[in-house]
Amino acid sequence: MATVIEWDGKPFALLIETDDGMRHLVPPVVLEDGVVLRGEEVLCAIVESGVTCEVPVIENGNAGILAEVDQRMAQISEQLGVPILEE
Length: 87
Description:
This protein is α+β, with helices and mostly antiparallel strands. It has one domain. Helix content is about 30%, strand content about 30%. The chain has 2 helices and 6 strands. The strands form 2 sheets. A 3-stranded antiparallel β-sheet has the order 1-2-3, with helices on one face. The longest helix has 18 residues, at about 65-80. It is globular, with a radius of gyration of 12 Å.
């Protein structure tokens, strides 16, 4: 099962819960000019797991956006007590 986590009213991350009770926080895919800056391995892992979901995407990414994503993910992970699915 996948639950969308919003930030400022927009889809930001996913909380994935597997049938065996494992929970992971999935970061958004970050694009710059249509090229994946971050998130390719996460997408591959989701496809391989068989989970059906829409992964949040952040367009117009740059170093500042990546840092902000990292900070937000850390905050959400701490609040939920769930590890971040790392690349």
